[in-house]
Model the fold of this input.
Amino acid sequence: MSQGITHCLRRLDWIGRIRLALTLFGLPCTVCTPGVRAVIACSSSHPFRPTQTISTSFCNLYTTSIQTMPSSAAPHVKSRCLEYPGSKIQRFLVPDDKVDWRQNWPQYNPVSYTDPSVVNKPVWADPEIGSFSPKFNTVDGAVDRTSFDGSYRIEEGKPLNPHGRTGVTGRGLLGRWGPNHAADPIVTRWKVDAKGEKIYHSVSKLPILQFVSIKRKDCGEWAIPGGMVDPGEQVSLTLQREFSEEALNTLAISPSETAKISERINKLFKSAGFQVYKGYVDDPRNTDNAWMETIAVNFHDDSGNSVSELPLQAGDDAGQVQWVDVDSSFLLYASHSHFLELVSKERQAHW
Done:
């Protein structure tokens, strides 16, 4: 047996023992280690809620009777991963029954951590509490400090994660105290053969969707392209900007090429987008005082003559970019797999 296989088997045995121990103690079993994530990623059930057709002021979006994810589902899991991403910081372990702030837990002693990249006061980050007085649960100047989940608690001048304890205080890698708003554009097309006919899955007998996926530079995981909403920026512009920068690398091409790409991008992003999700994200960067929230919107190139014909090129935070078949076996960053499951149901496609 080769050394590589032996090493792999030993690691699987080690992982299995850790999972068993965590399960016995009621602790989250997601281990945030890129090399082993595919083996031990834990899934939690997410109840769904029905929605209705809506229209928003910032974008031409709609929801349907498809059961969409509520922002308050099972206790967050990835937000309690053992090692905080991008660091050697070990979270204070929080079992499932102690996540809720309403559970009295005098022994709770979370680790305080804010990444040096945030402490160095970049333009996208807040200062430390005490050196400024943010107005939480409202639009504070150009910064939107409201949560999609409603009003959140403030304790000792700091916001509390509405989904409970994470084992870490401070902001970690996140710039804002409280909610950090992002936008995730899910761009899809049908998988077709050489004749342009839809390809159907051999088991489900449903047509196969493809989506634009990027490989994140920070953790090496595949994800939906997306990014933070800038202060005062409309979400519709964020969706288009992030897709253009990460999947088409518009920051590094000539103005003439950018103009050609923009024409097709504008056409797609002005079409009716399916609002897949709006709310809290179970993200490994979350802390007790800072957390991710997002709006995920699906823009579908049904005819295949819009963005489908554009050459994909990784840019900004993306290491790689490509069209990927939508399938439940393809593991993605944070809650992105759940988003794609809802898109598949909406499009009546294979999952």
About this structure: Helices lie at 3-24, 37-40, 116-119, 235-247, 255-269, 336-347. The longest helix spans residues 3-24. Residues 2-16, 29-58 have pLDDT under 50 and may be disordered. The chain has six helices and 14 strands.
